[in-house]
Amino acid sequence: MKAVTWRGVNEIGVEDVPEPTILNDHDLILEVGLSATCGSDLHLLGGYIPAMRAGDVLGHEFMGTVVEVGRAVTKHRVGDRVVVVSFTSCGQCWYCRQGLWSLCDNGNPNPGITEALWGPSIGGCYGYSHAMGGWAGSHARYIRVPYADQGAFAIPDGVSDERALFASDAAPTGWTGAHQAGVQPGDVVAVWGSGGVGQMAARAAMLMGAERVVVIDRYDNRLDQARTYVGAETLDYEQTDVTAALREMTGGRGPDVCIEAVGMEAHSPGPQYAYDQLKQQLRLQTDRPTAVRDAIYACRKGGTVFTLGVFAGVVDTFPLGAVMNKALTLRGAQQHGHRYIPEILERMSRDEVVTEHLATHVMSLDDGPKGYRMFKEKEDGCVRAVFRPGG
Amino acid sequence: MTGTVVRAGSAAALAGGAVLLVRAARARAARGPVTGGWTGSGWLAVTVLREPAEIDTGRLPAPLAELGDRVEVRVRPAAGGKGSELAARLRDRPSPGSAPSRLVGRDPEADLRSALRRAKQVIEVGEVLAVDPAPHGRRTATPWGALLEAWTRAAPAGGVR
Q: Is the pTM of this model over 0.90?
């Protein structure tokens, strides 16, 4: 079958690869309908998460149709239209039962790699390196889904493929950020990053009762999406002193909750960007925490900062003094989507969550290299390149 | 078919992985010698979301049972309702390997570590999760790729303890 693969740093391929087969009783095989690029893929593409091998199939945000089920699968049948959460989680360990699904004890077959990096291992993720399990990704005609009863969710009839697709990763990641950050009715919430995850974090915060939600980015089209489809206020950090603006918008306090949805390749207009880039290129830090620093600085005393963007290793010049002296709560997580996707799909069916606007460029698998180039370089206002393996 | 997005800096970017691991190793080294003077009790443990009474040490899951008389096994309640601590140790009590050898699954307890993880899966899920064979394209022979492949093969048995 055809698949979009990682061939090397900044090199994407389209190759013929073997079709997946059922290996465990809890597996299903999915014919992929749509599969999205994600900002976190760019960290793989750029070599910032150096656990990819040439030939690895990319993609972790997807939906499609069930074509085969394992003997122990009870919730799904051949022909079902489902969306699949990007994390592989067993549903049976203590972490899954606590709703902390991305921390699953059993979902990563290669736990030694992430134990070396982080202490305990976490769950696995499709198409996201051998550190995260070595699972084949979804930019292919078919994909194997382990723990299918836990990770696949039936799509309501009234929800389109294009909308349901983002219930796989962007929306539940946003929900994870807003919920785990403890957004309360009346809060002012600031979100750094107006990509798919940032927009969904903003929408989640709004639906959780936030009184004011402000999204920060520099791309006009993305900020326009946040205003139009999410209903958030926006700030362009290249045109505005964001900290000052947030202070003014909150009566001098700063936001109650600051959600960082940017990740390890953050950009900023100030000199710290050059500093962070230099240190990252010299490998003196693995990740650029620019937006995290901004969020910590802007947050009100006693507020919460949530790191929702993907980070892999170590950062430099981290404002721990502000965290301690301002009595901040600092949290982070990969997505615990299993607990949020049913609610998200229900809200999608009521048009309370719309996502299809994120899929700005839909193309075939043959266009994999072009899609990643457009997504990386933000060509033609690309917010997400989405592949349709069926053509 | 292969498309190049931006090739510049690829070598430096790949080197970043090695640096990340070196930094992690340095951070551990800063906390003391590889074993820190710690010799350990020999017990390796996993926490299983089952009551202790539900784990019959006379009928262990296959991954542990296969180790036979080489290991002794104990079960204790886990704190805070987290289930049971399933622990096992080798009867001949080898010295724990160095931290780097444990992390890459090259220590004397590597097989036991892997068996405990698989036993936990059997108890909690009913089967051991398999990932291979996973579909993939052409594997290009590179030093980093070979290193990663070797680490991936060892990763099911590697760990902090």
A: yes
